[in-house]
Records
---
Amino acid sequence: MIILIQCNDKIGLVAAIAGVITQNKLNIISMREHVDKQANRFFARIVSEQYSDVSLLLKDIQSVLPEGAVISINPGPEKKIIVLVTKEYHCLSDILVRNHFKTLGASVQCVIGNHDVLKDICERFGMPFYVVNHENKSNGIFESALLEVINKYPHDYLVLAKFMRILSPKFVELFPLRIVNIHHSFLPAFIGANPYKQAYIRGVKLIGATAHFVTNDLDEGPIIDQKIIPVNHTYTTEDMVNAGKEVEKSVLAKSLKMLFEDRVFVYNNKTVVFE
Amino acid sequence: MIILIQCNDKIGLVAAIAGVITQNKLNIISMREHVDKQANRFFARIVSEQYSDVSLLLKDIQSVLPEGAVISINPGPEKKIIVLVTKEYHCLSDILVRNHFKTLGASVQCVIGNHDVLKDICERFGMPFYVVNHENKSNGIFESALLEVINKYPHDYLVLAKFMRILSPKFVELFPLRIVNIHHSFLPAFIGANPYKQAYIRGVKLIGATAHFVTNDLDEGPIIDQKIIPVNHTYTTEDMVNAGKEVEKSVLAKSLKMLFEDRVFVYNNKTVVFE
Amino acid sequence: MIILIQCNDKIGLVAAIAGVITQNKLNIISMREHVDKQANRFFARIVSEQYSDVSLLLKDIQSVLPEGAVISINPGPEKKIIVLVTKEYHCLSDILVRNHFKTLGASVQCVIGNHDVLKDICERFGMPFYVVNHENKSNGIFESALLEVINKYPHDYLVLAKFMRILSPKFVELFPLRIVNIHHSFLPAFIGANPYKQAYIRGVKLIGATAHFVTNDLDEGPIIDQKIIPVNHTYTTEDMVNAGKEVEKSVLAKSLKMLFEDRVFVYNNKTVVFE
Amino acid sequence: MIILIQCNDKIGLVAAIAGVITQNKLNIISMREHVDKQANRFFARIVSEQYSDVSLLLKDIQSVLPEGAVISINPGPEKKIIVLVTKEYHCLSDILVRNHFKTLGASVQCVIGNHDVLKDICERFGMPFYVVNHENKSNGIFESALLEVINKYPHDYLVLAKFMRILSPKFVELFPLRIVNIHHSFLPAFIGANPYKQAYIRGVKLIGATAHFVTNDLDEGPIIDQKIIPVNHTYTTEDMVNAGKEVEKSVLAKSLKMLFEDRVFVYNNKTVVFE
């Protein structure tokens, strides 16, 4: 059972929360807390061994927290996700393989592509794949078509696994902090299109990738994780793209793991990640 | 004020400890705890904002902990250390510079060398330097001479900053978990002499360094931190030695910082480090 | 066209080799050379743009090299490999995905498992899978059965992608420097069985993986690549195993890329890798 | 003896250059070359064992290169450098220590500070220190005062070791590709002032440092090296500053090593670094 708490900070919070849990005869397996002093914000993730009356526990915890506290207990069974892709296979394949072997920590419901290139790999894993083409369509119509597929399945998160279309504010607002994107640069460097080309021209010695929540500021949403790899003068733009794929795959996998294990909190356009 | 606790685990420990602290009107600034389930061992490091009657608080905390608990409160002012060296300057200089600018987190009392090579750099920082030569001496006499200097100064820790002599069990027992060594390999690989030569011959692609507590099993004491850097076929043994110096310096500095901030616990020949 | 040369070193080798290539009107796209001064050994990897009479060029190059030189020109089309596995899917899946999308740089001919666990994933990619069970069999009979399958297919390399059986000297000798293994530790630390358990007990702060050629000294063959990731006191043995899988997958992929691009030379139980 | 060549690419360059060197009875110890295909630019760094008539060799090499080639042979004895600082000690101390122990690969002539904070540490190493205060001065007068000190000493490079003033185009033009700066961010992210504060607000998970040549585009000069370290939600801006100092020190040291060993070429606002 996992208990997640985010609220304003005040003296004695840890003791109060731990007290409530102990009074309910629950043993705390692990407890992580963080206080952002500047923002006066408190975060806790508690794993407890035993189970009890959740709604009662929720009420008990609520009673010792400041007003406006956000609590969630036992965020339910495995998360359900929908993956959006364009043409690149590396992130999707990694997700499909982990999903297949039940090590993703979430269950992929279906995959939607704006091209059909990745249909074959999905079918090999028995994964429903939908082509929602964006060509010759207004963005509104394109996104309506996406939503039509999305709404066929339960979904806790949408994962943009190299989905190369920009989603409209209207669409994004339907999924607040529930869309995760892998961006192919070490944000905030090289925001926008063609980051590897920009990196090549600038002559950087490291390239990176950033997994972040999608908000309505392009490439400006809360960062979940980032990773880099060294490059050098021998790398062409294409070499950087290829090297970048490895790091994109790796950082997306790590971020999804953190997310699906309920280790990620968001506030002030930043994240607290209890690794 | 920092409170350190190590004891056997039991249900409700976090709540009990946090409760005692809150009852004493102390606000918890940060609290880190860890339970080793396998060893049934509990560790906590609590930073609290305000100060109070320490001996009373100690007694209060003790009362809620299992028998055999080790508690320390407010481990006193800045640690005092003595540094032992041989001929290599890189780790010592880094310590002297940080000590000089008051960013070491400890106060170096003196430096002891079994050669006089590093006397000059110490004098430049106004640091007392003692030569205790090991040549033509039994180990017992050599170590007695070391102790004579050491006992002139208060000392919480001895830091072996590339001290190339092996200390006897008798000597080590005088400083249980209070001698820190930087070993020039990624332990447990390349235990013993000439690790870089061993690494060269083996053709490894990474070399590393390990900071650890000294115990009577050579290079087998509890590891505080480790770091590596990539090497390749162009590295001679000497190149590895030089590259290794950078990582030795860096890993020792990091480990001392952890130690001096009271972030390191030891049990079962391992460490818990609350970074 | 790739030209690989390994020979004893002598003055003027680079000029002589480059001269021969230029005389044959070939432009050198890239040239990498290395001299191990201590071993007096010369290595070169030359990529040239244009093609010509290979056997003539080979003879021309041979004529300017010392006796005993090993040259290979244009090592032929894509490498062919056979993958051996036991039960773990992570390395195999990564290879299958890359193979499927033609980015492996080699062509997987078939997969052999001593269990049938990974049959399903192979079939999903249309990859022939053979179970060669080791139970209730002498090692000789087991290896004969392996060879029977192996010999059905052309094969430049055997890749042990978490194949948990130790191959006999007799078997290994059939494939000199043509068997690549991924070992789940930062060799030479934790040689042998259960490296993650050993790492857990020792309390290391980094774990790693090593891709190496298999020789008849267990875990002592020439190292192709190594990589590590940080771990800490919160990792159980199982957590280390899981974290290790990511690095195993990554280091094997990188090593195979180097190998399939003819960037790896072996001598004195070490490698030269022209990245 | 080190030979550096930068010129337009053409067929047979390696053979021609190597041929000239061999004809002059010089053995090539190591040769590194790189061709930027897109820019059609050739770079070579040749280390040869023996010495000969440099001006003749220069003429001989020139004769086989395309027009406009830039060659330098045996770039003379140890480089001479002048270090500019403001108040932070970490980069300067590292340079002073290496200079003192003759492992910097260059000889520091003097240190100039726009504050006097670092005078003491310089004096401890017998290093001339000049205060050139910028307060209540026009930039022109400040820079004239800097130049007055600089011109007292021979100088191959100026090193800005956390010098927190922006130099004017007029000043920078006096030292083309001869001013090295350490910038406290992973450029091009967080250009300009207060990068750590920017990083904190953005909630990045990595922070870095960049060593680069100073040009008249602020923070846009050719990058020599970059390095990062992971940070997390527990880091305040001040923690990031402190963690950043370690990486600044490390990346500046590495870049200076590359520079002083004549391993760095510049073209198109990028570098080729033969590590």
---
Amino acid sequence: MQAIRYELIKTCKQTGARLGRVHTPHGSFDTPAFMPVGTQATVKGMSPDELKEIDAQIILSNTYHLYMRPGNELIKEAGGLHRFMNWDRPILTDSGGFQVFSLSDLRNITEEGVTFKSHIDGSRHLFTPELAMKIQNDLGSDIIMCFDECIPYPCEHDYAKRSVERTTRWAERCKKAHMNPEKQALFGIVQGGVYEDLRVLSAKEIVALDFPGYAIGGLSVGEPAQDMYRMLECTVPHLPEDKPRYLMGVGSPDYLIEGAIRGIDMFDCVLPTRIGRNGTVMTSRGRIIIRDAKYARDFGPMDPECDCYACRNFSRAYIRHLFKAGEILGLRLATWHNLKFLLDLMKKVRKAIIDDRLADFRDEFFSVYGYNVK
Amino acid sequence: MQAIRYELIKTCKQTGARLGRVHTPHGSFDTPAFMPVGTQATVKGMSPDELKEIDAQIILSNTYHLYMRPGNELIKEAGGLHRFMNWDRPILTDSGGFQVFSLSDLRNITEEGVTFKSHIDGSRHLFTPELAMKIQNDLGSDIIMCFDECIPYPCEHDYAKRSVERTTRWAERCKKAHMNPEKQALFGIVQGGVYEDLRVLSAKEIVALDFPGYAIGGLSVGEPAQDMYRMLECTVPHLPEDKPRYLMGVGSPDYLIEGAIRGIDMFDCVLPTRIGRNGTVMTSRGRIIIRDAKYARDFGPMDPECDCYACRNFSRAYIRHLFKAGEILGLRLATWHNLKFLLDLMKKVRKAIIDDRLADFRDEFFSVYGYNVK
């Protein structure tokens, strides 16, 4: 018995985008799905009730951060991550790979794993495929990720190839070390930088290991958007139709829509929460910087087309005041709205798939939002 | 037609504490009442909906801060403070006096008013009784306060006496300058430091001006608790029975209960929100510091006797983690709980008045909470 099941409901005749549903031990979520990021067992600024209010069906949390603080054993003792953070819907955890490579100091990669110094207290740690599985098994998340090597961008073909091969060997070790496959679905991760041949190689090798879902990693790390789309176009055809496909770390409206068009089912990104905390607001007419003086006496909502709690109840002038005064409610409202904006966008994407017009929807959306605005 | 009406419902036979209700243009509130403080047009960390969820019936906001940022004229343009901050229940604003004396630099007091430099941008301002009225009229709060002089503690009798006399003259000017008495009730403020004769003198002079409510100011500024209680005991008998009495800047459980016992109807304080943001939690068994290591694996609620959102849904271990990780949800939950704790305490005080046993309730409460714990 597998932990999750992917149900393909419909394919968009105009684009090939997939409408689906993923069933997990903590309920189902509709795809294409955007997953808000709760790095440290909380989506920054939001309560679980508020996440439900905006219809978040699944969230992501970060293995590296939870391992460091408060520790996976404490969370296991608390009854698992769902109970610890009071979130009873699906959770996906990453493997810690990305953070080990991007946040830690003095990392050293060997076949065994990665040695690094903690970003919190400088303590030394060795992350291995087996440890990534142990931690995620302790957390009890519904979807867990293989420990992979995240190469920098740009990266030589030669190194990228050796890294792909290592990521495959690590994926094998993850599969072997995963102790709870009936309750937690382990996804394989396709790497390969911006090299088509390596993406295809990686996809074939990872798919051969037969995972209940597949992620595409190592994109949105600085490469041009066209390179990302090219990588999706060469990779997705090698992924099975009956498993969900997850594009990691992607959350701007253009990447979400273009990703869905290329057959991606799941996305995550800190973008809406991070820019929200800084007062940048995604609206149906593009981004606005709420601190700007021009909003000082703007008594309309952040986004006139949005029906979120923030837009229903507070003006741009008030939210600007909150940001200028350093008040917590300001970043709460901007975060709330941004997340709702992306979750609503995914609903519109799903609707456009049902109506076989996702390419038309993309063009309409960006004619107002502005295509180059992330 | 007066803006507000005080309804005295019952007096506690054991203590003389008053159960009442104040009717305002934005609805009624039960007394004795604790008013959460929304300094900058927001109760730090809380949304208006959350304040309603914990049954806050009236909040306070600070004239000095709103005058500085975003400005009273902008708030007037927004339709008043209620609409600006989306709070449709009663609001009391202070006069700015306390902040002018405590926050600003280089203040200079003359009969005209107080000249000072802004704590934000160093700009020079002259606060007068007339300006305090103009600002509060623009804000549109239901209860507004006279501009008074807040003397330091300790303070010589001679200076305190001259200050009391000036505060009376300023109160007369406030009454004259107040443009909206049918919609906004102007409270007089009794000063006089810790001198009984001056408190009595001030009470008589201020009451002679006939305000719809009276505040006792200049207490809880460093004097021993017994001095505060003595001042209440000598002042309250000089205040009329048919008007509400407000003890300014007071919010620890002992002051609230002892104040109610001495005939006070209204209180406000930043204490619950300020200490909440620092991770100090008021519980039925006294204060706890949620960051303490001993709570790392404590999977029970902050206060087992509390039914607030935080206590119903999250453990001490989780909230400690949020504070250690610097997550916003941590201070939100601690703030939420602390406010609910004080609002619930006032409900219990009102119940004890109904049952003619407020002194017994005080003894029972502090036998568990610890009397000297603020």
---
Amino acid sequence: MSARIDMGINSVMETPQAVTKTSFRNAMSSFAGAVNIVTTDGAHGRAGFTATAVCAVTDSPPTLLVCINRESSAAPAFLGNNTLCVNTVGPAHHELAMLFGGKTSTEERFAAGDFVSSAAGYLVLTEAVVSFGCLITKRQRMGTHDVMFCEVTEIVDRFGSQVSVWCRRKLHELTL
Amino acid sequence: MSARIDMGINSVMETPQAVTKTSFRNAMSSFAGAVNIVTTDGAHGRAGFTATAVCAVTDSPPTLLVCINRESSAAPAFLGNNTLCVNTVGPAHHELAMLFGGKTSTEERFAAGDFVSSAAGYLVLTEAVVSFGCLITKRQRMGTHDVMFCEVTEIVDRFGSQVSVWCRRKLHELTL
């Protein structure tokens, strides 16, 4: 139990911090999220990166969003192609997720994983927890990033797989 | 090790499922996410709901997004006020998170938790893992939902708190 004396509403506020890039990034490090290897393939080339900034938006129509740094090496292919695949990963892909989040070349990234092209041309990671093949239907520029709104047109759901979570700058296996 | 015989790229694709509301929701249930009690207060009233559809966007300027169903009881206050507070919660707030995700009245929701108003008027949940006070700077309509883009103007970071994750339709405590 806390020894803090509760003096009523408005009286027990912790001191807010100044909002800076650093304090925002530190605070966001406690924000747990699924780990995703996001891929694209098409006329503008093949690319992939690891992202936690992925979020469901609506089921009508089935839509998710992915944030991408416009300065990243993967951005031109994602901004050129109109499709992507979100592969949510579990413990079997921890090393691969770190590789896709680092500075390795595109060729080395894809050589290290077992990807297959679906009939629609999505690059699906074999044995991911779940894969969402998507058409990018809208983009929203927001500071350094683009938010890509994506309509889901293909799902491979390997329900029952072990799930990973990124939190406090580490990968964790979620005990379900 | 798997007994599966790898017959080369393109040959080992699991059969994709038809994309329906149900298959999308089922697939998204394996997508682990932080649990947040999102609040608003102002001229258009007080409201709050539990959300996992929250995502960091960029640190320049510090920005996150929150998705809200326009048909939800909480929506009018969020769409009227131009501020909100994202309170990311841990195991101490599992019951409260379920309450804010259910059908309980606004009055009962807030009576069940220890909220304080910050100087800027944000409704901050005492002892949340981290709280982000935000100005809503842009909205994007997407199907049934609005995506609210939020510039963070206040952070209360209780680094070291235990963290919760929503996955497969249950709350889990993340072992860090």
---
Amino acid sequence: MSYFENFLKANQAYVDLHGTDHLPIKPKTHVAIITCMDARLHVAPALGLALGDAHILRNAGGRVTDDVIRSLVISEQQLGTSEIVVLHHTDCGAQTFTNEEFAQQLQQDLKVDVSDYDFLPFTDIEDSVREDMALLRNSPLIPESITISGAVYDVDTGRVTEVK
Amino acid sequence: MSYFENFLKANQAYVDLHGTDHLPIKPKTHVAIITCMDARLHVAPALGLALGDAHILRNAGGRVTDDVIRSLVISEQQLGTSEIVVLHHTDCGAQTFTNEEFAQQLQQDLKVDVSDYDFLPFTDIEDSVREDMALLRNSPLIPESITISGAVYDVDTGRVTEVK
């Protein structure tokens, strides 16, 4: 059983409403948002984004990784963005484990040794936002001219609060 | 000037409509979707997702990287997902450059040597979906029991078409 078939059915209704205008490849607001994969966060309605407005990058935790830097460099140098928003959220899955515990679990369940992996868990959500903003600020691949903001999304209320 | 302030204003209206129900941290459909950061793709409406339905991972191209594997392992082993959808799209920014050209540009504009980086560009979109599905299928961290599908999103029509 695959849920993918349901997505294809739902997409038929979306296509009927979509129209066929060609939007530009470069984001209209010049913003790239890095946030978590969490299912309770729908970034576009939460921030008032229309189609074509902003790049949205998502991984476990909304953490700044090499892959996020790769994506941001493409976003900025190829596609004209000049502003980054780091958006973490309350009740995050990345707050539910430690690397050590998780490595033990994966050794047991998958028979794979990941004892040298960092799965980027965190405890304090504002600290994690500040840490990731600092990683961006200190990257030689992110020019100083890029504006960087940070915020937390509350999954229960939908509210976004700035982190300074 | 920062666009972030506009997002905060738009978010106030979203909060008024959001309600305060607590949704479970585990995605209801047990699906994780890996797709591109492109601004013209709003994943939730395109696939009929409600809040809480599915994990959404996004990077430049929707490529399967170490960071995506990290996120998927957390998604599956901590948060109960058992199905992955790889969703690339037409007119992708990852089709607009080669590593060599991009490295030259970054050397010139940022004075950073990234000649050994792979920015994961691609030419054929169906090939890139199949390549990333194969990376997932061959990862020791993705169990064989996980269902994997692939598809392409058309940014002009909103249509999702399966890739076999």
